[in-house]
Amino acid sequence: MTFPSKFVVGSSMRKIIERYQKVSGARLSEFDNQHLYCEMTRMKNENEKLQTNIRHMLGEDLTSMTMAELHHLEQQLEVASNRVRSRKNHLMLQQLDNLRRKERLLEEQNNHLCRLLAEHQAAVEGVAEPMIDFGVFCQTAEPRGNPLQLQPFRLQPTQPNLQESGMQRPALQL
């Protein structure tokens, strides 16, 4: 495969640019060094100004600022602080709503499991009505007054307590 002579690697960059300008009609000399230097200087000054503003917002290098500039900076910081506080409060309220929703779901699951446990316990013991009341762990139908007040446990044991008086232990003999 051969390449046309005009794309030979040995040709200089200037000739390639001249050919491009002739074919496309564009003039690369419009973007001379002076224009590039001015653009670079403008961008450098803008960068320095932005860095100075960042330092001021961080509370650094404030000695060169006038009273009016300090007042303006203070207002900007108050607005920014209010936005941050508002966003934080919004997120906390969303999180609180999610936690309340989870709490309701867990309470419903807990009540369901307590009912199943009571029904299972009653079925095992052959009792017609379950007697298990787990207090804090299983909510009753009646509303609780103080949520911090603990309710007592009431259980019906499945095995008699052999330690109680009136119950005799069988004597062990070898």
How would you briefly describe this protein structure?
The chain is mainly α and 174 residues long. The chain is built from three helices and no strands.
How many beta-strand elements? 0
Alpha-beta classification: mainly alpha
What form results from the Cα inertia axes? Answer: elongated
Strand content: under 5%
Tell me the Rg in angstroms. 42 Å
The biggest beta sheet, please? none
Kindly, what is the distance between the CA atoms of the first and last residues, rounded to a whole number of angstroms? 108 Å
Give the low-pLDDT segments.
140-144
Mean pLDDT value: 76
Tally of contiguous helical segments: 3
Q: Portion of residues in helices?
A: 55-70%
The secondary-structure element order is HHH
Descriptive account of the structure:
This protein is mostly helical. The protein is 55% helix and 0% strand. The protein has three helices and no strands. 0% of the residues are buried. About 3% of the residues have low confidence.
